[in-house]
Design a protein that fits this description.
Layout lengths: L9 E5 L3 E6 L4 E11 L8 E3 L11 E4 L13 E2 L5 E3 L5 E8 L4 E9 L5 E10 L5 E3 L1 E8 L11 E6 L2 E4 L10 E12 L3 E7 L4 E9 L2 E7 L3 E3 L4 E12 L2 H7 L13 H17 L3 H15 L1 H16 L1 H10 L4 H14 L9 H19 L21 E4 L10 E3 L1 H16 L6 H18 L4 H25 L1
Parallel strand pairs: 1-7
Antiparallel strand pairs: 1-2, 2-3, 3-4, 5-12, 6-8, 8-9, 9-10, 10-20, 11-19, 12-18, 13-14, 13-15, 15-16, 15-17, 16-20, 17-18, 21-22
Length: about 475
């Protein structure tokens, strides 16, 4: 029989990818640290912990829905062949945790760890050694801390892949709906760069249930209710994933987990950008340079649109003096003034919106690129050059102890952002002046507004915008020389 011991023990399992601590209290993961990712950019920093903020229960807790497996919720399992720490380098290895309920039900949780994969296999065996049939459904769950409100430009929260469809569940919506039923391929909790997922080996019609308590989100994978007859043994098989939201890594696993890498409404543009950036990085191992080259490449594709736009601006500039004359002449007759202006456009074959339309086409590209650069784990702690040591963090030269308005810490000089503001100012100067003086004044403020907005954006994004501006200025200058 199984011995009851005084205190639940904790075993540490080390592979080349991670180190995980498992407690006999519930046979749950109480910590999982990734070897290839750090908490912060400093080299001495600790490894990225994925489970630390999971609250009391740990991850991969097993409970029963109807409570007929008595005592499972706070079961203390016994680990066979206990060693304080186990290193897995060559061959996969199993760890078996066992527990017997007061009413004679034996539960085994068998984890299988692989030396070089983020996936962990879990088989749960429920054996009914009592004389009665038992009706219940088992639940596998993980808890996560709900994120800070102000730091979200991309989705953070629970998600699933159900009925061949990827769903994100906003944390504030859990109160309205917390149960989702269908053929579930996986349930997950996503952060900006990392995810935890429970993946049933055989997708069946099951349920994902969410609870929100004191900022802790509990995500549960609920098996369909079944009857375990006296003497019967039932097996449930899962894969578990705790790791980076890297498109390459997730795609390789082939479990549709890559669906979780989603860049919003412009995903169809963002994914090719990410692939291209990674291809460039293969040959030039610097993500900053990859961003610059990718920006140049996008600019080349959009070159004809830009040319159209700048030609139109150039023509507007030429008729500017005539416009001013009409405005002065008919300043008391708005209707006549508009008629004359329209006549002027007709005579000189100028399209007043010709400058805007090509710009509008470029907006989706900008948003796609923005989302991609914000969420791509490739840029996390990726250095560019000089003081830009992390393309996913805001650019800061020096570190001040004084707080600066509009700036989120750390405080320093946002050099790239200031140069970017300068290029916007130059662009403004090159564009035809607005007919309306009030509008013209507002437009002059735009570079300042943009600079303030960009102060807290990741330096990778600022770099893209800066390079894009420099290319636009060159194109605009070239067009204005050619058609003047």
């Amino acid at each position: 029989g199984l011995q009851i011991q005084a205190k639940p023990r904790v075993v540490t399992v080390n592979t080349s990818f991670y180190s995980v601590k498992i407690s006999e209290q519930g046979a749950v993961f109480t910590s999982l640290a990734l070897n290839n990712y750090k908490e912060t950019i400093n080299d001495e920093a600790s490894k990225k912990e994925i489970i630390a903020d999971y609250g009391i229960d740990g991850a991969i807790k097993l409970t029963s829905d109807l409570g007929n497996i008595q005592g499972l919720d706070n079961a203390v399992f016994v680990l066979n062949n206990y060693a304080e720490s186990i290193d897995i380098h060559d061959n996969p290895q199993n760890l078996k945790f066992s527990w017997v309920s007061s009413n004679g039900i034996v539960v085994n949780k068998i984890f299988r760890f692989f030396p070089d994969s983020y996936l962990i296999d879990l088989d749960v065996y429920v054996e009914n050694r009592s004389e009665f049939n038992i009706k219940d459904s088992i639940i596998l769950s993980m808890t996560n801390q709900s994120p800070d409100k102000d730091k979200r430009y991309s989705f953070v929260g629970p998600s699933n892949y159900m009925d061949k469809h990827y769903n994100q569940i906003k944390i504030k919506k859990i109160k309205e709906q917390n149960e989702f039923s269908g053929e579930i391929e996986w349930i997950s909790f996503q952060k900006r760069y990392f995810m935890s997922a429970i993946i049933p080996k055989e997708p069946v019609k099951a349920m994902m249930r969410l609870t929100l308590n004191n900022n802790i989100v509990n995500s549960q994978y609920v098996q369909p209710i079944s009857i375990i007859k006296a003497g019967e043994l039932k097996k449930y098989s899962y894969s578990l994933f705790f790791g980076p939201m890297s498109l390459n890594i997730l795609k390789e696993l082939g479990l549709n987990l890559d669906k979780a890498v989603n860049f919003g409404m412009f995903d169809f543009l963002a994914k090719p950008c990410l692939y291209s950036m990674n291809i460039i990085h293969k040959y030039i191992p610097n993500y900053g340079i990859a961003i610059i080259l990718l920006t140049v490449f996008i600019k080349i594709i959009l070159w004809p649109l830009g040319t159209k736009s700048y030609k139109s601006m150039n023509e507007m500039k030429k008729i500017q003096p005539l416009m001013a004359e009409i405005r002065t002449k008919y300043k008391n007759d708005k209707k006549k003034m508009n008629q004359e202006v329209m006549g002027l456009y007709k005579t000189y074959k100028v399209n007043p919106v010709g400058g805007c339309l090509p710009m509008l086409v470029q907006i989706p590209v900008f948003f796609a690129f923005y989302r991609m650069l914000y969420q791509a784990i490739e840029l996390r702690h990726a250095p560019f050059l000089g003081w830009v040591t992390d393309l996913s963090a805001p650019d800061r030269l020096f570190n001040f102890n004084i707080s600066i308005p509009f700036m989120q810490p750390p405080y320093g000089i946002p050099v790239l952002t200031i140069i970017m503001g300068g290029t916007m100012f130059l662009q403004q100067k090159m564009s035809p002046p607005m007919g309306d003086p009030a509008q013209a004044k507002i437009m002059m403020f735009m570079p300042i507004v943009f600079t303030v907005i960009f102060i807290n954006f990741s330096s990778g994004l600022v770099l893209y915008w800066l390079v894009n501006n420099i290319l636009s200025i060159s194109q605009q200058y070239y067009i204005s020389q050619k058609f003047s």
